[in-house]
Amino acid sequence: MKKGGAMSQDRADWGFLYGEWSVGQTDFEKAFFVATEELKKRAEMVGADAVVGMHQDIDMDTNGFAYFYLQMYGTAVKFI
């Protein structure tokens, strides 16, 4: 890792920009927790035992990064 924290001179290292020192870090963690809990509830509602293959998609607001949009999805499965 370079002294400036970026992995590349040409492009930003997102892990560094939105890592531990990010002001909105706890917002990401809260959104992830809420989304995960919602997936578990919905899986239980349809009689599933687990959710597998979970994916997340985070889109940042392009106007100063004031907002972000988190989508999580996975496949509800029933053990037999």
Describe the protein in words.
The chain is α+β, with helices and mostly antiparallel strands. It has one domain (17-77). 31% of the residues lie in helices and 26% in strands. It has two helices and two strands; from the N terminus they run ααββ. Strands 1-2 form a two-stranded antiparallel ribbon. Strand 1 and strand 2 (68-77) form a beta hairpin. It is elongated, with a radius of gyration of 17 Å. The termini are far apart. 0% of the residues are buried. Mean pLDDT is 74; it is low at 1-8 and 11-23. It comes from bioreactor metagenome. This is Heavy metal-binding domain-containing protein. Pfam families: YbjQ_1.
Helix % is 25-40%
Q: What is the rounded distance between the termini?
A: 47 Å
- Helix count equals 2
Order of helices and strands: HHEE
How would you sum up the major sheet? 2 strands, antiparallel
Q: Radius of gyration over alpha carbons?
A: 17 Å
- Label the structural class: alpha+beta
- On the 0 to 100 scale, the average pLDDT is 74
Strand order of the largest sheet: 1-2
Which band does the percent of strand residues land in?
Answer: 25-35%
Number of domains: 1
What's the total number of strands? 2
Low-confidence stretches: 1-8, 11-23
Instruction: Sum up the overall morphology in one term.
Output: elongated
Organism: bioreactor metagenome
Pfam families: YbjQ_1
Protein name: Heavy metal-binding domain-containing protein
